[in-house]
Amino acid sequence: MERHDAALVLTLLPHGEHGAVVRFLGLREGLVAAYVHGARSRARRADLAPGNRVRLVLRGRLRERLPTATLEVEASRALLAFDPAPAAALAYLVELLAGALPEGEPDPALAERFDALLDRMTGGGDWPAAMVRFERDLLSALGFGLDLGVCALSGRRDGLAFVSPRSGRAVSAAAAEGQPWARRLLPLPGFLCEAEAEGMPAPDAEACAAGFALTGHFLARHVFPERPRAEALRREALARMGLSA
């Protein structure tokens, strides 16, 4: 049985003398692990850099057994390893995706968003806000989506300024004004409520920090308890980006 897919390289675990078990995020396959012969050779190391987009061929008779994989690089992200902030962010993201996503459950939209984020990181443009948006989308894909489109109390769509730390629902400034529980709400940066469009000004560092604090609260609640390494890598990435965790 042979399956073809477009995929992103996530993590690599050495196996045998020269090979490795590599986790990929495929458009059709979702999260999939496969054995790659010679993965640790000098010739193949660059091909399997985290974040690389590859044309993947999986071979194996049964889906229940570990397939073998061959691949061809379509877009290399190997240069990210030489820039401290993107390198730390990439290390965190691949660890998170490899550990949190269910195997064999494709989510093409999420894979495409991750690929687009990597393109932005490689291009050297604004990417921290895009990373916050990706964390928001990942929470949704894992079943912990935030409802940021309407005020949970008034039903209005304007003036949204906070998020309930329990329900993940937005709250407007008007609805929260004077309430004793308002101090417990999480700030909601405006860029997370807006559809991203070409030509929009990049959110400033303060807005990005608020965004990371918001997504980080729900990741810590729903995802990180079983993935402490991903949480530690996120703290390191934010520090490299000059943002607080």
Give the gist of this structure.
The chain has 245 residues and is an alpha+beta fold. The chain is built from 7 helices and 8 strands, in the order βββαββαααββαβαα. It folds into 2 domains: 78 residues, Nucleic acid-binding proteins (OB fold (Dihydrolipoamide Acetyltransferase, E2P)), CATH 2.40.50; 140 residues, de novo design (two linked rop proteins).
Helix and strand layout, with pairings?
Layout: E1 2-15, E2 19-26, E3 30-36, H1 42-45, E4 53-59, E5 68-75, H2 84-100, H3 108-123, H4 128-141, E6 160-163, E7 170-172, H5 173-176, E8 186-187, H6 205-222, H7 228-240
Antiparallel strand pairs: 1-2, 1-4, 2-3, 4-5, 6-7, 6-8
Helix pairs in contact: 2-7, 3-4, 4-6
Stretches where pLDDT is under 50 for at least 5 consecutive residues are none
How do the SSEs run, as a string of H and E? EEEHEEHHHEEHEHH
**How is the CATH topology of the largest domain named?**
de novo design (two linked rop proteins)
Range of strand content? 15-25%
Query: Describe the biggest sheet?
Result: 5 strands, antiparallel
| Oligomer kind | single chain
Q: Based on CA inertia axes, which overall geometry fits? A: elongated
Tally of helical segments: 7
CATH architecture assignment of the largest domain: Up-down Bundle
Overall structural domain count: 2
Structural class: alpha+beta
- In total, the number of strands is 8
Distance between the termini: 45 Å
User: Percent of residues in helical segments?
Assistant: 25-40%
CATH top level class name of the largest domain: Mainly Alpha
From the alpha-carbon coordinates, what is the Rg to the nearest angstrom?
20 Å
Give the strand line-up of the largest sheet: 3-2-1-4-5
Mean pLDDT: 93
